[in-house]
Amino acid sequence: MSATSPTPILRATELVAGYGGPAVLRGVGLELTPGAAPVGILGESGVGKSTLVQALVGQVRPTGGQVTFEGRTVSRLGRRDKKRFRGAVRTVAQNGLDIDLRWTVDRALTGALTDARKAGRANGRSVADLLEDVALEPRLASRTVHSLSGGEKQRLALGLALTTRPDVLLLDEPLTAVDPSMRGEIARRLADTAREQSTAVLLVSHDVELVGRLCPTVHVLADGVFVASGPLPQILAAAGDDDAHVAVRDLATAAPLAAQRFR
Ligand SMILES: Nc1ncnc2c1ncn2[C@@H]1O[C@H](COP(=O)(O)OP(=O)(O)OP(=O)(O)O)[C@@H](O)[C@H]1O
């Protein structure tokens, strides 16, 4: 290994987490490295994908194992480190817009860029650049956030997350309201920007096609652990094996087109 090989910035080790009852996550390991290719998470509804994302940012406290940011335990970060963490690790969830809906898109993005600059995370991007990153038309800049469609709001949430030039972008079903025919294009632009800025991306989605296209490495979450990891074609190709996990078989059945394409 060369001395300059990138090191993971956000790392979950033997992560156990839940909500007081039986643990939802029962020993998950994950590494996110700036500059590395996007990592995908697939799994049926309720298996704990969002719980994993929340545990990665300290919103769900692990009861076992740990999550570290730059080597420090996330749930024990001090005030200054926490502030840095919030700029460096951005989450975009399905309904992730936490801003005044009366603002115009331009005001929202300009304000976020100013905040990023004050926090020492200026990225040299303009509002126009950000709109392009997430495939929002320039004419939408003068519209109020409230007036945007669900899919446009989701794209704005992505644009806002990019304002801090994050080291890690955690995307939890970020494009559900976007027309399926547009998802690929938005994801491609996002992946390009992430690559240019060395942002590590974790993509959680039910959309097997999307995850397969964007993420060279995919983890399948079931029974609280990753039951399969690797390139999606390899995972789907093994779905017919005698020892294949039922979640992998279900994945191939639920996404026959993807299974065929990747086979
Ligand atoms: N705040 C909470 N309190 C108690 N239980 C919760 C809470 N949030 C989630 N759960 C439970 O934890 C389990 C995992 O939920 P989670 O939302 O992580 O699954 P998911 O894989 O993201 O599902 P989906 O694909 O439907 O979004 C589910 O059984 C869910 O009901």
From TrEMBL:
PROSITE patterns given in the database record: ABC_TRANSPORTER_1, ABC_TRANSPORTER_2
Domain ABC transporter: from-to ranges: 10-248
Source organism, top-level taxon: Bacteria
Assigned keywords, A-Z: ATP-binding, Nucleotide-binding, Transport
InterPro entries the record matches: AAA+_ATPase, ABC_transp_ATP-bind, ABC_transporter-like_ATP-bd, ABC_transporter-like_CS, P-loop_NTPase
PANTHER family given in the database record: TRANSPORT ATP-BINDING PROTEIN
Designated name of the protein: Peptide ABC transporter ATP-binding protein
Naturally occurring in which organism (per UniProt): Isoptericola cucumis
